[in-house]
Amino acid sequence: MRRHAPRYAFAVGLIAVPLLLAALGPMFAGQAAPRSVSFASGTGHWLGTDFSGRDVWRQVLLGGRSVVLVALAATALTYLVAVPLGLTAALTRRTWLEEALMRPLDVLIAVPSLLLVLLVAATLTPGPAGLAALVGLAAVPDAARVVHAAAAEIASRPAVEALRMQGESWWRTAVGYVARSMRRTLAADAGIRLTGALYLVATAAFLGIGVAPDAADWAVMVDHNRTGLFLQPWAVVVPAALIAALSMGTNLLFDAALHTSAANAARKGGRG
Question: What is the mean pLDDT of the segment spanning 118-135?
Answer without folding.
Answer: 82
